[in-house]
Amino acid sequence: SQTIHQWPATLVQPVGSPLSLECTVEGTSNPNLYWYRQAAGRGLQLLFYSVGIGQISSEVPQNLSASRPQDRQFILSSKKLLLSDSGFYLCAWSKDSNQPQHFGDGTRLSIL
Amino acid sequence: GQQLNQSPQSMFIQEGEDVSMNCTSSSIFNTWLWYKQDPGEGPVLLIALYKAGELTSNGRLTAQFGITRKDSFLNISASIPSDVGIYFCAGRDQGAQKLVFGQGTRLTINP
Inter-chain contact A43–B45, Cβ cutoff 8 Å? Predict the structure, then answer.
């Protein structure tokens, strides 16, 4: 069966520091991968998605970037965090664009 | 762009009551999904719908893909405390890479 792992579960970072969140999927190959941000009590905003290694589509202009160095690895990064980057970050995968997305347990990011 | 209107935003019910929530779209979707999110966790897929008019059950949960392809509803029968959480609808157009999510329905159950 397929599993998705995100880490860390929680992270507290100072403004201006770099960021690296990692997501890996097991039990499948060539998945579609997604990064979402969720503000408290709100819906999910798609940040990036990838249909293959090295392929990244950005949905909203922002202070973040994504990379897919391996087939089942998706990384969310920032060179300098802003206060507005605080939130709950979720990684998701799907077999293809017509299949449901399955989510990881998320990373709670707090910027001080 | 595509928008989803999910209602109600919140519900406060007694244990044992039935629950109904719905989503409407400004455009046609080919897929409707319903997720549940517990505090501090990622959303978990409850039901997936792929065909207009389709009615699918998962235990006490039932969801339907509207005939117009612009709406979907989720019913929960005989609610129990573990049904508490936020329920999200999501829709996707044919071939689209992206899901469009509703803003969620927060369900609170009084024992």
Answer: no
Interchain CB distance below 8 Å, B48 and A51 = no
Long-range contacts of A51-55 (CB under 8 A, 24+ apart): A51/A97, A51/B97
Contact A97, A29 (CB under 8 A): no
Contact A37, A49 (CB under 8 A): no
Tell me how far apart the alpha carbons of residues A104 and A3 are, in angstroms, rounded to a whole number.
8
Encode pLDDT of B94-110 as tens digits: 777 788 999 999 999 98
Amino acid at A60: V
pLDDT digits (tens, 9 = 90+) for A41-73: 778 999 999 999 999 999 887 789 999 999 999
- The first and second tokens of residue A65, run together, are 């970037």
8 A C-beta contact, residue A4 and residue A27? no
Q: Would you call B42 and A105 a contact, using CB atoms and an 8 Å cutoff? A: yes
> Which helix (H) or strand (E) segment is B48 a member of?
strand B44-49
Q: Which of A44, A90, A93, A95 to mutate to test the interface with B (most CBs of B within 10 A)?
A: A44
- CA atoms A51, A53, A57, A60: torsion sign: positive
